[in-house]
Amino acid sequence: MMEARKYVWEGAIPLQIHLHESEVTTLPPPLPALILAPRIGYLPLLVPHIKPHFSSTLPPGIDTVWFDYKGLPLKWYIPTGILFDLLCAEPERPWNLTVHFRGYPGNILIPCEGEDSVKWSFINSLKEAAYIINGNCKSVMNMSQPDQVELWRSVINAGNLEAYIRVSSKLKLGTVGDEYAADLYSSSLNSRQSIGDTDSTGQVKTGKCFTLLDAVKSLLPEYFPYKSLNNEESSREEDKDEEKVPSENLSEHVESCYSSDDAEVKLVRIQGIEPKLEIPFSWVVNNLVNPEHFLHLCVCLKLPQVKIPSDT
Amino acid sequence: MCKMQESASTMVEGYLSLENIILRSIEEEHDELSCPQKEETSCSEKEELIDIATLVQSNCSKVPYYDLHIIYSASYRVPVLFFRAYYGDGEPLGFNEIEKDLPAHSAKALLDSKWMFITQEEHPYLNRPWFKLHPCGTSEWMKLLFHVDVSVAKNGVTVELYLLSWLSVVGQVVGLRIPLEMLNQQ
Predict the structure, then answer these.
(1) Which is the most buried residue in A47, A56, A146, B10, by most CB within 10 A?
(2) A92, A14 in Cβ contact below 8 A?
(3) Higher model confidence: residue A204 or residue B53?
């Protein structure tokens, strides 16, 4: 189990970073920077490695760094791997991004003051996960200063899974047991209760394993009509915004800007992997969870072809 | 005003909003005030409808307008206040300007007490940066608020009363006062 987790932890995305043309003051324009970005990391953390590449060509002024992909400003607090899985339905290698050092779009993106902002956002998410699982944030808030530093270091130096596990195990956020009863899960969901306070490894009622498919169905019931999943005609694919599932709890954070009539799930991508939907959800959670203890599911939807009525 | 959002789940999610309100009069910038320009009516069932009477000041673009949204946090299971401020000409206020605009005494006391933090975060529905009043501790002090009332202990509390009580505390940070009559109606 450690092996799978380590493999995921060390996953990275090759990026080709272009400086926005409005900020190029020298000729010839600088070549794009090539950098391997850890999946579990965040784009602002790459800036110290990117900036030297472009600093001689930047216009005068204070740096306010932000990134865009095909014109879409990127939310800096979302881990890099998830941005990639969401925005590139067909994975692009290297992933071409544009960096800006000026003109921060403060009406669209929340401010980012470098590593401190990212760390704050990370700890905040960890607190949120702790609250959902344990009903309070105490374990995170009571972390000693050295522990906090070590935890954060283990995340930004994405190689150090051992250090991360050492510190995070003190937070008592738990791992998910191997067998779940489907009954236990569905009744918990219906009452919208956190199941963190029930024994996650006990009470196997039916002996049936709770699969990834079961989890996705319970989060997105509207995309699983009674008819079969495949064999539908489609002409368009849309990336659904990510859902975050904290370990041991299926509270739903779903964003959708169109009606769900006849839309169906095409694929589920987690940490860049499209796991077979039959695998036990517990395995998915224990191995693919992000350091802030959220499981990010990137769901790709298949939308039906829209028939335009014609006049005859 | 209640804003409902079509969401992918079978339940409809929404939030309460109060927009374009002036929280402080022009003469008394440093005192805590109620809102003379705002009228409130309540409606039945779960949602509160708040009528807004906006005061348009053509000669005074330096008076900040506020938009207040009450959004339910599914993770923390408490309401959260999202707000933003802007001048009459539409120019938004930054965090420092808002801090200066907040009513001095109650805001400072609440923020110093560490019950409340103001942070800049993304609005869950509008996907834009708004200011948020951090919910940590909300359920604790809400329990304290209702602790003294025997009938509450027996019968629980309606959503309207919960929200009014919650807003009577949280609103003080931005200078929003709930008229006593509203609380006595319940």
Answers:
(1) A47
(2) no
(3) B53
Tokens of A166: 């050492």
Tell if the CB–CB gap between A251 and B74 is shorter than 8 Å.
Answer: yes
Q: Is the pLDDT of residue B49 over 50?
A: no
Runs of H (alpha helix) within chain B: 95-101, 104-112, 138-147, 150-155, 159-174, 180-184
**What predicted TM-score, i.e. pTM, was given to this entire model?**
0.76
Is-contact A206 A183, C-beta < 8 A? yes
pLDDT confidence of residue B82 = 92
Nearest-angstrom CA–CA distance, A7 and A160: 12
Q: List, in order, residues 6 or more apart from A173 with CB less than 8 Å away.
A: A129, A130, A133, A134, A139, A247, A248, A293
Please name which of A285, A294, A311, A272 lies closest in space to residue A10, comparing C-alpha atoms.
A272
Please state, in angstroms and rounded to a whole number, the distance separating the CA atoms of residues B26 and B59: 11
Residues 6+ apart with CB under 8 A from B50: B1, B16, B18, B38, B40, B41
Residue with tokens 């202990």: B153
Closest CA to A24 of A54, A67, A66, A63: A54
Q: How confident is the model at residue A191 (pLDDT cuts 50, 70, 90)?
A: very low
Partner residue facing B120 (CB), from A110, A255, A260: A110
Nearest CA in chain A to B92: A107
Give me the residue label for tokens 């409130």.
Answer: B40
Q: What pLDDT shows up at residue A208?
A: 76
**pLDDT one-digit tens code per residue, A120-142:** 999 999 999 999 998 888 899 89
Of B75, B92, B136, which has the smallest distance from its Cβ to A251's Cβ? Answer: B75
- What is the spatial distance between Cα A175 and Cα A179, in angstroms, rounded to a whole number? 12
pLDDT band at A262 (very low <50, low <70, confident <90, very high): confident
Of B144, B118, B115, the residue nearest B131 (C-alpha)? B118
CA A216 to CA A218: how far, in whole Å? 5
**Dmax of chain A from CA atoms?**
75
Task: Give the contacts of B4 (CB within 8 A, at least 6 positions apart).
Answer: B12, B13, B14
- Interface confidence, given as ipTM, is 0.72
Q: What is the largest CA-CA distance in chain B?
A: 53
Residue B114, sorted as left (phi over 0), alpha (psi -120 to 50) or beta, turns out to be left
Q: Note whether B76 contacts A128, CB cutoff 8 Å.
A: yes
By a Cβ cutoff of 8 Å, what residues of chain A touch chain B? 75, 106-111, 127-128, 131-132, 137, 220-223, 240, 246, 251-256, 259-260
B6-24 residue pLDDT tens: 444 445 667 787 787 777 6
Kindly state the average pLDDT of the residues A72-88: 95
pLDDT at residue B70 is higher than 60:
yes
B136 and chain A in contact, CB less than 8 A:
yes
